[in-house]
């Protein structure tokens, strides 16, 4: 379904989607990048992925989009830039195609983490006894 939608939703250069710790928080490196972008007083439309919407959440000049919702899929497909410190492109186990987008993943720590497309692959392999990986 997502791949089909990708063919009909045009990327908008002004859309930027931010994600921090799978929508659980609005902080860390994505928040710093967001604040620096907003200082430039540009015309970017910024969206933050959140686990649950909160009217009291302070995100000046940005919109909240509920994680794993249809709007979340739409915003991902419409956004030109994705900024995240965790996996942003898996929704209910379906990979959202990156296409010609800019994807900035600011994760930190040891370089042996599994992110993005590999995350689902490794998880599936671990479920299979004879995967050859273990």
Walk me through the structure.
The chain has 134 residues and is α/β, with parallel strands linked by helices. The chain has four helices and seven strands. It has a five-stranded parallel β-sheet with strand order 3-2-1-4-7, sandwiched between helices. Strands 5-6 form a two-stranded antiparallel ribbon.
- Binned, the helix content reads 25-40%
- Rounded to an integer in angstroms, the radius of gyration calculated over CA atoms is 16 Å
Low-pLDDT ranges: none
Instruction: Report the count of strand segments.
Output: 7
Beta-strand portion reads 15-25%
| Main beta-sheet strand count, sense and barrel state | 5 strands, parallel
Instruction: Provide the succession of SSEs.
Output: HEHEEHEEEEH
How many helices? 4
Q: What would you call the shape?
A: globular
Question: Which structural class is indicated by helix and strand composition?
Answer: alpha/beta
Average predicted local confidence, pLDDT: 79
Amino- and carboxy-terminal Cα gap: 32 Å
Widest beta sheet: strand line-up: 3-2-1-4-7
